[in-house]
Design goal:
The chain is mainly β. 11% of the residues lie in helices and 54% in strands.
């Protein structure tokens, strides 16, 4: 158990090493939808996942996400750091996750490593691998194991 905590903690905190902030340019807000979370039945039976992102500069942002399904509601708050430019290149994120899982309120930590690609001025594709660990149970094992999940989002940037 302690090894799992240490692995997830280092994953979550280690992603922040790509840091750096500068002041923002246009196109610094976005709305997104997590396509994998919608169709993956292993992720609590498929959920509607929406996100809002606000830039803190050309290399960082704050992200708020909501995922909902009939029996589960998940809120996530993340600090995202880009290794290259905003919406174009590798990123790392760390934050907290909380929600209601079958009536119980749960809390945990979330870390992610991913890549974003701007398709044009308004559309971005984002892919990541996320690690979540906390008081919630893993949807497959039923234990308090870290959950590694893929994320693929379509983002409207404005």
């Amino acid at each position: 158990m302690i090894r799992r905590v240490v692995v997830c903690l280092f994953f979550s905190l280690g992603v922040m090493a790509m840091g750096g902030t500068a002041w923002a340019e246009p196109r610094q807000y976005s709305l997104g939808i997590d396509l994998v979370r919608m169709v993956d039945e292993e992720q609590y039976g498929g959920m509607l996942g929406l996100s809002y992102q606000a830039s803190l500069g050309t290399h960082s942002a704050l992200v708020g996400r909501l995922a909902r399904q009939s029996r589960y509601t998940i809120f996530e708050g993340l600090y995202k750091v880009y290794g290259d430019t905003y919406f174009d290149g590798p990123f790392a994120a760390a934050g907290v996750v909380t929600g209601r899982y079958e009536g119980d309120k749960e809390i945990g930590f979330l870390g992610a490593l991913g890549y974003e690609l701007s398709i044009n001025q308004f559309w971005v594709i984002s892919g990541a691998v996320e690690c979540t660990w906390g008081t919630m149970k893993h949807p497959i094992t039923g234990h308090h194991d870290p959950l590694f999940r893929p994320a693929l989002s379509l983002i409207l940037a404005f």
